[in-house]
UniProtKB/TrEMBL annotation:
PANTHER family: ALS2 C-TERMINAL-LIKE PROTEIN, ALSIN HOMOLOG. It comes from the Eukaryota. The keyword Repeat applies. This is ALS2 C-terminal-like protein isoform X3. SUPFAM superfamilies: Histone H3 K4-specific methyltransferase SET7/9 N-terminal domain (SSF82185), VPS9 domain (SSF109993). The gene is LOC101405023. Keywords: Repeat. InterPro entries: Alsin, MORN, VPS9, VPS9_dom_sf. Residues 311-457 form the VPS9 domain. It comes from Ceratotherium simum simum (Southern white rhinoceros).
Amino acid sequence: MWQADQRHGPGVMVTQAGVCYQGTFQADKMVGPGILLSEDDSLYEGTFTRDLTLVGKGKVTFPIGFTLEGSFGSGAGGGLHTQGVLDTAALPPDPSSTRKRQLGLGVFPVESRWQGIYGPFWAFVHAGCPGELQEALLGFHVQSSRALRKSQEYLCCERTHPEDSACRMEDILEELLQHREREALQQCLRKALSNPLHPLGKLLRTLMLTFQATYAGVGANKHLQGLAQEEVKQHARELWAAYRGLLRVALQRKGQAPEEDEDAETRDLQVHGLVLPLMLPSFYSELFTLYLLLHEREDGLYSQGIAHLSLFPDTKLLEFLDVQKHLWPLKDLKLTTNQRCSLVRDNCFLSATECLQRIITTVDPREKLEVLERTYGEIEATVSRVLGQEHKLPMDDLLPLLIYVVSRARIQHLGAEIHLIRDLMDPIHTGGLYDFLLTALESCYEHIQKEDMRLHRLPSRWNSRAPW
């Protein structure tokens, strides 16, 4: 929060050294109780002075679980002096309290953020979208397409006549009226959001630039991931509300009755189905970077597990994962002269593996879930072909086969992908097939991280010279 261009009220500050502070500011200085998270995930909870020096009662939780609770102050020579109790018997802290702690959640309600951006737009809408205010809203000179074609100097800041802007706004509102069916509306929104001369496009671009300024560079900190993903979902809701506001003005100008108010379920369906896939690419780079940072440790363990599993030939890996032998697609193994099937790699369930690899080619959570569903279908199709009849896989059979496919797909940063999908997927899928498949993928990801998967070596009884 700010007052007279100074930090004032609750706030979060991130330094170039990666240190995060959360507390209360007065006249641009942090005072009173607060939280400090250092780059090594040490956590301090206590009071600060105006120059961010620890002072008074507080508690430090170290990454290994040790805690130091007592009084803090400035020591001789500018160091830190403390008097208290050091507890070395404490268990390692919950990652959600230190390493993965998210700052700002609950302190800054997402609905109240960035009102300086939404305010001018809603003032424009509530005024009835007059053409003479469109230029002020967009923040730069607006010309009609006809004027652009006539002028050879359209980059000059030469004002247009008010009626040009009015006609432009009339065209925008008329287009909204003509594209209200779902498929046509999706195309209309795509066109509007990609056009900086459209009020919706201008709003999205301003939100994107604000998001980049906040969460790129110094702001790319794992403790801000929760704030960022909250904002992206809120921006989608606000953009849908902005479209509804423009549509209401268009209907009023035509003398038509406004549309009925939406219930929460209908609104969420439109937000996740229409708006989020269109606006997410504008925020994806910075948002996914925060997910990478937050899940870096787990993704590192997963990568080690994948590296070790890649040493196994196909049949040895299927055996290691306890896949039932009657489900092995041995006919798919392409052997060269004098080659044994026990040495072949990356041939079993190849269609499912290639399908799963496409999960990183889209930013839309719904499309990522569709890729996962097709992967499941490819696994079942391969098994049905092997058995010679249609076969539905129970969970006990699916999980080891899915682990096999995940290990062969070698998707980088799978943990970040899974958590992003989980956070942004449509709530309507909760408890359904997509939720089930995502949970299964999470189980595979966690299983691959286990120590016995990362440290396993090929047993001596597996003699690569012997035929299978």
